[in-house]
Amino acid sequence: MLKKLLSTLVCTFLFAGAALAQGTITGTVTDGQTGDTLPGVNIQIPSLTMGAATNVDGNFTLEDVPAGTYTVQATFVGYQTFNQEVAVSAGEETTIDIEMQPDVVGLEDVVVTAFGIERDQRALGYGVSEVASEDLESRNQSDVGRALSGQLPGVSISSSGGVTGSGTDINIRGYSSISGSNQPLFIVDGVRFDGGNNASSSWADGGGQQTNPHRLLDIPPSNIKDVSVLKGLSATVLYGEDGRNGVIIIKTKSGSFGEDQEPGFNVTLNQSVYATQISSRPDYQDEYGGGFDQNFGWFYSNWGPRFDTDNPNLFGSDFRGFADDGTVLIDHPLTQHGATAQAFPDLQNADYRYEAKPDPMGSFFRDGLASTSSIGINGGTQDLRLNLNYSRNEEQGFTPNNKLNRNTFSIGAEYSVFSDLTAQTTFNMSLTDVQSPATAAGGGSGPAAAGGSTSVFGDVFYTPRSIDLSIPYQNPQTGGSAYYRSDNAIPHPRWTANNVITTNKTDRYYGKTELNWQAMDRLNVVYTMGYDSYTESQAYMQNAGGIRPEPLNSGFYQTIDIARSTWDHTLNAQFDYQLTEDFTLDGTVGGQYTTESYQRQGVESQNQLIFDFFEHSNFTDQSSTNFFTGADFQRQENVQTAGIYGDFRLGYQDFVYLNLSGRNDWFSTLEPENNSIFYPSVNLSYILSDHIDINSDAITFVKLFGGVATSAGSPDPYSTRTTLATDARSFVNNDGTVITTNATSNFLGNQDLKPELHTEYEAGVDLRFFENRLGLQASAYTRSTTDLITQAPIDPSTGYSSTFVNVGEIENQGLELTINAKPITGGEFQWDVKSNFYTSRSEVVSLGAGLDRIQVGGGFTTRGNFAIEGEPFQVMYGTKIVRVTEEMKQNDPNFSDVEVGTPIINSVGSYQEQDDIGKIGNPNPDWELSLSNTFRYKGASLSFQMDYQQGGDMFSTWISTLLARGLTTTTTKVDRNNTFILPGVNEQGQPNNVQISPSSVFFDNFGFGTDEMRVYDMTHIRLTNVRLGYDLPASVLESTPFSQVTISVTGDNLWMYAFNVPEASGFDPNVNSIGGNSRGFEYLTGPAARRFGGSVTLRF
């Protein structure tokens, strides 16, 4: 009894002591401009994970707060976050009044510039665009590139298709190099980050190139805090030649350390689940089956008899009778090829219904599923701050055997070593594994197209409406493909999906160590050592039995291993001085030394021994060179760049800022006499509204800015020297001796080669209206590139075929506009609007060196993108229709009365093709526009983004194949029993009178005729993203361990309409099948993806 009494007394005193050691915080929250009270405001003490919400009168109470000093944080949609330090005494009530300011378009925004230097946006003499983490997370994409699409003016983003893990092409302010990369520089937490796709190592089976994943795939969007984009040379000059194409600065959550971060730890959990589908599909016709000219045949095309025909003569020996419902019965498709027929004896006498089978795309593709799980932990002590993040992404694409697995782990730490010395380090690990069926570019004309490229999408497109993809696809005796062609000349799509596989596995490690020394009151010195290292293993495997030229059909296995690393050392001194009462001076001086190494090893094996076993020992023949291209897999590169730079900003009375910058680089890729180059920059920012009293209630802020900057572009490694290729095991002679051979390249090094030179002029305005509720930012620029580095042919008698030379000039002009508006703010309902506009024009001013045109990409033959003097860069050239010219009218009396431009028809009634290629289009859009709206009411939010593109031509194999094969409803709008006469004149100038069949109209002309007929205007509008989110109110979370719970549903690429393509094609223009400097060519590399799903985020 005494023990119980003592225990009771002890517990009573303990709880009483705890209660006496606690206090209460109360207060009222009001609008800082109107004075109105604000209900539903979230009130938190982040370090204690305590929270409450204001009631209808704007009042709140935080009870049982331990005695101490804390930061109280108030957040409410449409308002700036409020923080105030509050001291809580034991047993007492502390009252604070909170005035929240509307979060309008700010004037004092701080933006991240080169080398992570933060500057006031008002003082910048160039434009900087930013994207916040919530804008990235709302775009449920697996890679950063796609998540940025449409959110930044002047930034164009396209993909090779909707295949999970497929490549992404990012371009800022157009193209300015013929042979060099036009991709931007990526900086992640202050470290150079290789964002390429190692396209030079891609396998190519006769021309069609397999697109590798873009290495931005290694960064999960869920770990990104914000993104800054430096577009102009004035903004990127400190990065040297690597920044000439713009810089994308990514700050991750693990590499971000807030000064107001309190002791303790916060945890964020997120789970997202999304479904993926093909975004659009063709409108297939259900009236006609395989054949030509109304007669049945086992062809790819659908110009055969109607499905409801009762005429057995149209089917020849394949006719077997009629079903009870009148449907024609024919031989089974798998009886057409001898070896296949023997493998399926039960089908020899089987009837096969000649009828419209299920939509081949609908029956082949599936609904994909993506799941992303992440956890983030941040916090620490007064001197040590830690961030840990882990993310796992698992995704199955809509294409069979397409999947992505990614695991990323990152840790960041910041430690106050001394009062004037801070150390910061980050470490990131990303393990990415992508698998996909072969998606090489295809030409739409069966396996012979593009040299025999293997593409599962091409195989699907060749499916006649009378063929069911559910029929057996694999020969049970050989494992090879079984399909409907009499010569088995096309693989079954399901066989391709299961037997022709590409894999890409990457292990990546990157991070930095940084020391920041506050040397003096207004001077600090920062040393950063950054590293980015990864190994990438690519594999292409095809089982024996495929329907492709040798060596693919006998089994093929190719592996390529790549090791790439970058080490970057920078030393910066940053200062900030008040020179006089009116003048300020701040800036940065520093140096940078970068080393890059690249190693590639590869083996290619042919003639498989055991089916479905992929080891090089299971193949009889091995080689270290690509069978199709002759390229050597082995390659090693080492590049060093050293640079010194300075950036000085002089301010006058806080309304004029003059910025002078410059950098000098030394390149190891150039000879000593040409490897040093200096590029200066000067820009000015003038805040007119601070200098002159505008005296207007409508105009709040006016800034004018402008400048001129330069940069350079160095050539690829070893462009100045002739290289030697060594094959350590070229062959073994009769006595068993291993012979090593050496061979010089057919490329002649040019020791006089110089860097490309870039010069850009930029001017713009920053305007704010109506107390900052409306903002307009505009930038116009002109950029010219001279001394273009290009590969030029030389006389073969020299022993070489080509060399690199400096020739020509490209000019690029553009305009970027951003409008931000807050039509409704200051209450429970908020409405935000943002719109981006971008237009750009490029022109090849000159080429020089006797060059008429330079092909820069695009095609497999002479068709492609070109640089031609007086034309836009990347102008599209290909085969064209012969048309009547003014010269013909003047010199040939047969054409004197014929209108210029009239097509000439050949003797068989089709368009006559020119001997030489000509201009068929311009892939560059006239302009692009995006519009996003966000509506908020209390804890709920609804946002959507729409994108519009005006103009831009595309050569589409998707559309032309559908037309040529008679697959869509477009081809049934004509009477297939009639004949047609194409408008035009014959070679004697007389009106064409040759009648041709509908299949000839579509197949020989609109589909697979001249390249000119396969180009379409890509004007389109798209509903890019829709998101509905809800934050649970703090009052609901009071009894839970959570400080915030957010639930959201999101859809991406939900709707699209292309105005100038055949309606039944279902074609999405946002593809770029080849990548690199190619644009405007689509080669069946896959349909675009639609994604929709939801996520839950928990913070405590």
From TrEMBL:
Keyword Cell membrane: no
BP GO annotations: iron ion transport
Pfam families assigned: CarbopepD_reg_2, Plug, TonB_dep_Rec_b-barrel
Domain TonB-dependent receptor plug: 122-247
Membrane topology: Multi-pass membrane protein
Domain of life: Bacteria
InterPro entries: Beta-barrel_TonB, Beta-barrel_TonB_sf, CarboxyPept-like_regulatory, Plug_dom, Plug_dom_sf, TonB-dep_OMP_SusC/RagA, TonB-dep_rcpt-like
Annotated ranges, domain TonB-dependent receptor-like beta-barrel: 565-937
Alphabetized SUPFAM superfamilies for the sequence: Carboxypeptidase regulatory domain-like, Porins
Alphabetic keyword roster: Cell outer membrane, Ion transport, Iron, Iron transport, Membrane, Signal, TonB box, Transmembrane, Transmembrane beta strand, Transport
Compartment annotation: Cell outer membrane
Residues in the signal sequence: 1-21
Alphabetical list of PROSITE patterns matching this protein: TONB_DEPENDENT_REC_3 (PS52016)
Keyword Transmembrane: yes
GO CC term, one of those recorded: cell outer membrane
Family that this chain belongs to: Belongs to the TonB-dependent receptor family.
Name assigned to this protein: SusC/RagA family TonB-linked outer membrane protein
Annotated source species: Fodinibius salipaludis
